[in-house]
Amino acid sequence: MDAQSRGRADEIDPADQWVLNPHTGDYELRLNHSGGDSAGTSQPPKPRVPRRREPVRESSGERRGPARDGHGSAPRREVPGQRGRRSANGPRGQEGPGRGESAGRRSRKAPKARRKKALLWTGGVMAFVLVGLSVGGYALYQHFNGNLNTVDIGSAGNKNVVSNAPLNILIIGTDKRTGKGNEGYGDKGSTGHADTNILFHVSKDRTNATALSIPRDLITDIPECTSKQPDGSDKVIPGTDNTRFNVSLGQDGRDPGCTMRTVEEITGLRPDHFMMVDFNAVKELSTAVGGVKVCLAHPVKDPKSHLDLPKGESTIQGEDALAFVRTRHSFGNQSDLDRIKVQQQFIGSMIRQMQSDDTLTSPTKMFKLADAATKALTVDSGIGSVKKLTSLAQELGKVNTKNVTFVTVPVLDNPAEKIKATVVVDTAKADPLFAMMREDTSLTEVKAQKQAAKSKQDALLKGTKAAAADVRVDVYNGGEIAGAAQTTVTWLQNDQGVLKSTNKANAPAKIDKTTLEYAPNQADQARALAAMMGLPGSALKQGTTDAEGLQAMVLTLGADFKGAGIPLTGPAKVPDGIQQANADKAECAK
Fold first, then answer.
1. Backbone angles phi, psi at 294, to 5 degrees
2. Chain-centre distance of CA 226, in angstroms?
3. Model-level pTM?
């Protein structure tokens, strides 16, 4: 259902929420939908009075501005989100009576709870700040479309917003010196590197989300990627091994699609979309919501970022907000990793502020927020319009704030360096964390979700298992590891006794998840193979007709396959030593 349909479900047209205040000359949001309301007022609905339809004149649903043009008529002003529509006697685009004054119709007053829901669902657009994401704002119709910048990333992402699958959004904050007053930040002349990076993973059932911060100084391999150049041509950029993550953007003409492919290389999670912002975003968005509350465990007066705040709680915006998220020498051990913790705390507070009644019930704040958010964003073409962003907002808005967890990629100091400046992935901790995210396991409700998953898998795998010698399977490689089908067959035959396993080389197409297809009369074989390989119940795909003769099951290894003998089922708990922060809990920066 689109925004217009949702509004009309409660007899609320989103366009009719905006009326002109004759005292200020500005359009404001009308939270009450009765026909005789003045701008910014709430009146009880008038009783319905049948009347004869007359030619359209200025109605109470159409307010005059303070000035007139040379012909004596009020100059037409663009209503935020206003769609042109046909009046009783006029052409499309000419306004007729207000909705509450249409002949034979009046708007019923929605209960308070339903009005608030309408506000959230018709106006919800995700405003992602420099260091992450925030929810809220009216971003409807063409008024905001012109604010958005889009980048064609080719096959690196999805063309549309998915509603029936996990959702991965990569948020990139660049160090590009754009915007007034930002000349002293970042690197002079930088094309914009991936300075702050968060992979926001939303579960398929939309009950939880994990915001994974990726350090800019992480040493990794950047894969080959194709980038769209300013002249419209495609440029194939060779991969680079053993380099900093932040040069996955900007360096050698790499675009955000290259950063997305690098994230997939590290985590095994494929980003669907990206949102990119520069320094101005955090300044403009924090100001639009009237400031963001932060807490310090000790007073800070940082000579480099110019942050000057007392111990305890403060409300910051603009330059102070930017200084807060950029400060690192006054927190922890003065590393970028400690700055990431501070940024996560800021994001959580920003989310809470944007979801607060103080913001949601303020038309001025919501309008400013949406305007600032869309101006700050550069996105992929898959979400490159207000309509698509609104669809994304509907999906992300289903996640309860208490189930949004912030974590950072587990890392170790780079052993190749004498003076420690970069880090490498701590695979012992990172691999289980990535596996949990790939399996949609919530970091806030691990025990309950894993028990539910275990019960489902037990039900699927319950029953007799065939002897290894009786298991017959053809193995295809649909993943990223070269030669995976052959190494799996070798492991099955030598270590598991599955002698009737055959290497069928590459699958017709790449797949994300490993699957085992089998016939109903091969269920005992499927259970046996799943137990050997540690396949989750979701990987088992039973057909409808029985196998005949020597027909084999089909095992297709996906991108989630990490090697023969490595179970695909994720861990039951978050590895020890991984620090977590929750979006609905305030913490003081130390």
1. -130, 160
2. 23
3. 0.65
Residue 37 has pLDDT above 70, yes or no: no
DSSP state of 218: B
Nearest-angstrom CA–CA distance, 257 and 151: 9
Partners of residue 501 on adjacent β-strands = 473
Phi (first) and psi of residue 447, to 5 degrees? -60, -50
Write out pLDDT tens, residues 207-244.
Answer: 889 999 999 999 999 999 998 877 888 889 999 999 99
Among 40-49, 359-368, 447-456, 538-547, where is mean pLDDT lowest?
Answer: 40-49
pLDDT recorded at residue 245: 96
What is d(CA 5, CA 457) in angstroms, rounded to the nearest whole number?
A: 40
CA distance 209 to 137: 21
pLDDT band at 32 (very low <50, low <70, confident <90, very high): very low
What are the Cα distances from residue 332, in Å, to 338, 341, 457?
6, 9, 43
138 contacts: CB under 8 Å, gap ≥ 6: 29, 80, 81, 123, 125, 366, 367, 370
- Cβ-count burial of 577 within 10 angstroms (0-12 exposed, 13-18 middle, 19+ buried)? exposed
- Residues 585/449, Cβ–Cβ less than 8 Å: no
Burial string for 479-515 (b: 16+ CB within 10 Å, else e) reads bbeeebbebbbebbeeebebebbebbeebeeebbbbb
Is 194:388 a contact under the CB 8 Å cutoff?
no
Percentage of the chain exceeding pLDDT 90? 34
Average pLDDT over residues 176-197: 64
State the Cα torsion 32-35-38-39 to the nearest 10°: 50
Q: Taken in order 198, 203, 204, 205, is the CA torsion positive or negative?
A: negative
Convert the pLDDT of each residue in 563-575 to its tens digit.
888 888 766 677 7
Two structure tokens written together for 590: 């130390």
